[in-house]
């Protein structure tokens, strides 16, 4: 190596200086990125709360003029779903108590669900109608079956699309049986009970005829309650056939002929032509922001945190 090449090599002090400059540059980049993220999060939070505030103020203003009160009943009707009796009943009471709400419109798109939840909503609609002398209309979109139809039966009038699925006035309890699985894989099942019927319908035990008979009696009792409430809600409009309460479902166009529904119309058409009030206000209870995020991404841990911090609002099935 020549003398000139040796002189061109950086000294230790020069390397240290270069290292310091690179470290400082990297630190500055990290700080810049960090502040960019802080700024973005702050901006998103500001936009969210601005939109939320605007929406809340707009909702309050809208409620102070004549309107159709809309309540969505979407998805499976269960205690732990968005379509649960507690939230729907709270929305119903708020809508009925507002003197500016000309009528209540239930927008239904549900295949059914819990008979208990459906019955609770049905009973509350009947009570509120009697107390406030305000009419309720149901507008079914894709599905208004079983538990969803149970709720709709409390309405003064029911509408659907010609292709909607409507009806299914029946009760079902389904499951699986594995009475021979454990023995085949060499697993012993140990169950100790203090009541002889505590293990009825156990999926790992063979079904007994008396168990099936008792369970069918239970289903029949719930079915009769369903039938009685549908008859009370529909009255003489319902044209009973031998299979009306057999669990069959119909299209909207078929349901009109059977008196299961009153006509064919969309939710907006019902508001415009039946209620005659196109201004609509949505009374459906929505989850708060954090609960909505955790529900959307299915983060069970997040839901637990939301509940622990007090930030959240708040089988047999008839299908």
In short:
This protein is of the alpha/beta class. The protein folds into two domains: 66-283, Alpha-Beta Complex (2-enoyl-CoA Hydratase, Chain A, domain 1), CATH 3.90.226.10; 288-314, no CATH class.
Structure notes:
By secondary structure, this protein is an alpha/beta fold. It has two domains: 66-283, 2-enoyl-CoA Hydratase, Chain A, domain 1 (Alpha-Beta Complex), CATH 3.90.226.10; 288-314, no CATH class. It contains eleven helices and eight strands. It has helices at 3-8, 12-62, 85-97, 115-132, 147-152, 181-184, 209-234, 252-257, 267-274, 289-297, 300-308, and strands spanning 67-74, 101-110, 136-145, 157-160, 165-167, 249-251, 263-264, 280-282. Strands 1, 2, 3, 4, 5, 6, 7 and 8 form an eight-stranded mixed beta sheet that branches. Helix 5 links the parallel strand 3 and strand 4. The termini are far apart.
Distance between the termini: 89 Å
**What gyration radius follows from the Cα positions, in whole Å?**
30 Å
Secondary structural class: alpha/beta
Q: How many individual β-strands?
A: 8
Can you tell me the CATH topology of the largest domain?
2-enoyl-CoA Hydratase, Chain A, domain 1
- The topology string of helices and strands comes to HHEHEHEHEEHHEHEHEHH
**Domain module count:** 2
Major β-sheet, in short? Answer: 8 strands, mixed
Q: For the record, what is the CATH homologous superfamily label of the largest domain?
A: 2-enoyl-CoA Hydratase, Chain A, domain 1
Poorly predicted sequence stretches spanning 5 or more consecutive residues? 308-314
Number of alpha- plus pi-helical segments: 11
Q: Average pLDDT across residues? A: 81
Helix content: 40-55%
* Approximate strand percentage: 5-15%
Secondary-structure arrangement, i.e. CATH architecture of the largest domain: Alpha-Beta Complex
- Give the overall form: flat
Give the C-level CATH assignment of the largest domain: Alpha Beta
